[in-house]
Automatic annotation (TrEMBL):
GO terms for molecular function: copper ion binding. The chain crosses the membrane at residues 189-210. SUPFAM superfamilies: E set domains. InterPro entries: CopC_dom, Cu-Rt/internalin_Ig-like, Ig_E-set. Keywords: Copper, Membrane, Signal, Transmembrane, Transmembrane helix. Coiled coil: none annotated. One of its GO terms (biological process) is response to copper ion. It comes from the Bacteria. This is Transporter. Residues 156-168 have a biased composition (Low complexity). One of its GO terms (cellular component) is periplasmic space. Residues 148-168 are annotated as: Disordered. It comes from Cryobacterium arcticum.
Length: 217
């Protein structure tokens, strides 16, 4: 009889512990879900590192989900194109447009050489993501070249675009994170910390219930 009662207590304890673990895992899933919602880039045109021989007309960064177009909010979506040489010149009018998952900027390139594109977008989870890429411009004799501007242009009709300096700083930080091999954002660390707290709370609650169980039937 004592063995049967002991076995029953162990079974009940196991069920409580299993229930606690299920709650803990569910808590981790609910808390950590927003951290995995950042958009990721699926296509860039012109392709980074490529050689372009005809005016692209439009430079596009496409992600895996729709972007947020936060009209009137500073530091949302922007793209900056700069040309080669020590005397850097900028191209395009500074205006960027969101089409679903894509950010586009119209541009006419100038002198041959390596061009740098700095971009920033707002992903579905409302976090800004940014980066930069380069391509080589080798126009043929039939291409019309733009003069460019000595200063980074600001879109005259779109107040939602961030300033060129802010966009460049954000992209520089993102590129530095990529170079260091760190893909963890500060917000991700907060979500992970919250998930750990939820797990510990669930385990603590389970142990408390087990301690309060009576020793006999």
């Amino acid at each position: 009889m004592t063995s049967i009662r002991s076995r029953g207590r162990r079974l009940r304890s196991a069920r409580y512990l299993l229930a606690g673990l299920v709650v803990a895992l569910a808590s981790v899933g609910l808390v950590a879900a927003p951290a995995s919602a950042h958009n990721s880039v699926v296509n860039i045109s012109p392709e980074p590192g490529s050689v372009v021989t005809e005016q692209p007309g439009v430079i596009t960064v496409t992600t895996n989900d729709n972007l947020l177009d936060l009209a009137g909010e500073g530091g949302s979506n922007a793209m900056q194109i700069s040309g080669p040489g020590g005397d850097v010149r900028y191209y395009g009018d500074g205006c960027s447009t969101v089409f679903g998952p894509s950010l586009e900027t119209e541009v006419q390139l100038g002198q041959p050489g390596e061009y740098t594109v700095v971009w920033q977008v707002v992903s579905t989870d409302s976090h800004s993501i940014s980066d930069r890429f380069t391509f080589t411009w080798q126009p043929d004799a039939n291409q019309v070249l733009a003069e460019g501007s000595a200063t980074a242009p600001t879109c005259a009709t779109d107040n939602s675009s961030s300033g060129a300096a802010d966009t460049d700083a954000a992209a520089t930080e993102a590129a530095a994170d990529a170079d260091s091999g760190s893909g963890v954002r500060a917000t991700d660390l907060l979500w992970i910390g919250g998930a750990l707290v939820a797990v510990l709370a669930a385990i603590g609650a389970t142990l408390l219930v087990l301690r309060r169980r009576p020793t006999g039937d």
